[in-house]
Amino acid sequence: MADNQASIIIVMGVSGSGKTTLGAALAGALSFPFIDADDLHPQSNKDKMSQGKPLTDADRAPWLVNVRKVAVDTSHATLQIKARRARAGVVVACSALKKSHREVLRGERAELDLRKEPKDRVRSEDGGVDLKGEEDQEESVGDHQTVPPQPLSASSPRLVTFFVHPSGPYNVLFERMTARGSHFMKAGMLRSQFDTLEDPTDTGETGIINVGLEGSLEEQVRAVLEELRAVGATPS
């Protein structure tokens, strides 16, 4: 990993997939800060989900922008103290169900395209932090606008985003959700999330690490760390 590079590792997936548990364990193994994106939902989103109402992209838009901003700010903070650390970055647990959601979280898109719900359009305050290869491309925003990435100086921090996707059969995830009755996300909403999910292995995205639910938490963490080391996201 380069001296001025930090990794944003987002553990994604539907409810019940164990993304928060895996994310926290992965953060501990890497000595990274951990962010649970559920904590960043506005109260209106939490209230809606607790009533069994699925979120729309209009609900998610400002939340995703905020998750990206908090992840970027936290990664920058770890870079500032990297002299006392072996590595820099942050781990985030976030559903990131659609490709467009993941584009916002990578910094490739400043906002969701909400042409069907234009009153809820939200623009990112991220400032266009660059990711791997981002300096050579333009970022699509909405229908016609593009945001050219800011040029990198020799000292510019470089943020590289990876997605870890724990996934399994619907019935297994439903059983997991019904066992955790205290969460504001109700088990009955799992079908809606499954229907919304755009599996990153089917969308041509890169930087994806798939994890099955069969292994123990320790086995999952070990498998993810091996994949991250293979692509240079963490030191060997």
How does this structure look, described?
A hairpin with a 3-residue loop joins strand 4 and strand 5. The protein is α/β, with parallel strands linked by helices and 236 residues long. The chain is built from seven helices and seven strands; from the N terminus they run E-H-E-H-H-E-H-E-E-E-H-H-E-H. The strands form two sheets. Strands 2-3-1-6-7 form a five-stranded parallel β-sheet, sandwiched between helices. A two-stranded antiparallel ribbon has the order 4-5. The longest helix is centred in the N-terminal third of the chain and has 24 residues.
Question: Could you tell me how far the N terminus lies from the C terminus, measured between alpha carbons in angstroms?
Answer: 10 Å
Round the Cα radius of gyration to an integer and report it: 17 Å
Please give the largest β-sheet. 5 strands, parallel
Neighbour order of strands in the largest sheet: 2-3-1-6-7
Low-confidence runs (pLDDT<50, min 5 residues)? 117-156
Percent strand equals 15-25%
Q: What do the pLDDT scores average to?
A: 79
Q: What is the subunit arrangement here?
A: single chain
Structural class label: alpha/beta
Instruction: Report the helical percentage.
Output: 25-40%
